[in-house]
Amino acid sequence: MGETITTLGFPLSGLSSQLQVTQGCISGLTSLNDDIRYLQFTAPIQPGSSGSPLLLPTGEVVGMVTASLVHEHAQNMNYAVKFQLLSALLASAGISLESKADLTSATPLTTPQLSKQSRSALWLVGCQG
Predict the structure, then answer these.
(1) CA angle, 70 as apex, 84 and 87 as ends, to 5°?
(2) In angstroms, what is the C-alpha Rg of the chain?
(3) Is the N or the C terminus of the chain less surrounded, counting Cβ atoms within 10 Å?
(4) How far apart are CA 45 and CA 21, in angstroms?
């Protein structure tokens, strides 16, 4: 807890298709009802942020943005599925995770460096409906 995180994504993609970057920290190791599958974090997110990676300053993915609690007394109650669950889900579907040594760093990166380095691994995915 307390680790700085960055999320990169395409929230509100109907208004802009540009990559958005926000920062915060890991504020909890579980979600509502102590659900251990999720991390709680404080980086601001918007509708459309789901699927965005939650990155440590080294570029390591620790989760995937999934939800935000909207309540009149709650602020910055955002949740991400933990990487361990994501990797198990992908493995069960027969999808292997390739090590991307070029996307992680032994030393912390600045936010602009992290954004630039991670950009090539992100895509805007939309659906018509």
Answers:
(1) 10
(2) 15
(3) C
(4) 9
To 10 degrees, the CA torsion angle through 65, 70, 75, 78? -10
pLDDT bin (cut points 50, 70, 90) of residue 109 is very high
Residue with tokens 């970057």: 21
Number of other CB atoms surrounding residue 108 within 10 Å: 12
Q: How far apart are CA 10 and CA 125, in angstroms?
A: 9
Q: Are 22 and 41 in contact (CB under 8 A)?
A: no
Q: Are 66 and 25 in contact (CB under 8 A)?
A: no
Of 91 and 126, more confident: 91
Kindly state the tokens that stand for 107: 């030393």
Q: Could you read off the pLDDT of 25-53 as tens digits, one per residue?
A: 999 999 989 999 999 999 998 887 888 99
